[in-house]
Design goal:
Blueprint (H helix, E strand, L loop, with lengths): L1 H4 L14 H11 L1 H17 L7 H21 L5 H29 L1
Protein name: YlaH-like protein
Keywords: Membrane, Transmembrane, Transmembrane helix
InterPro entries: YlaH
Length: 111
């Protein structure tokens, strides 16, 4: 996807001797839309999905719309910290899920 290279925002200080950090930043910068797509899927399943399974076509439509949103967010990521915000959102939702799970087990045991 050459058009993502046009919006590349990270430039290492020494391109001839890349550190591990530089390599990771370049990788995440190059595959920006895919990383944001994975974050969007994680946020959807951690925060919004119910236990009821959707039909296959609705799942396909959901993933297509999430990928379109990821492309839009990838262009916004050049000037805004979208990847960082999505990472924080995933962390907060994981913390909420971990804290709610023991409460649900306690409530079931008391009934």
């Amino acid at each position: 996807m050459e058009w993502f290279e046009l919006v590349s925002s990270y430039e290492p200080s020494n391109p001839n001797a890349l550190t591990t950090y530089d390599s990771i930043r370049i990788f995440f910068d190059h595959y920006r839309a895919y990383v944001i797509f994975v974050y969007l899927i994680a946020v959807y399943y951690l925060g919004f999905a119910t236990r009821v399974r959707m039909p296959l076509l609705k799942n396909v439509l959901l993933y297509v719309l999430l990928f379109i949103g990821a492309i839009i967010f990838s262009f916004l990521d050049t000037s805004l910290p979208v990847k960082s915000a999505m990472f924080v959102a995933v962390l907060l939702l994981v913390i909420v899920k971990v804290r709610i799970k023991p409460d649900n087990k306690r409530k079931r045991g008391e009934r």
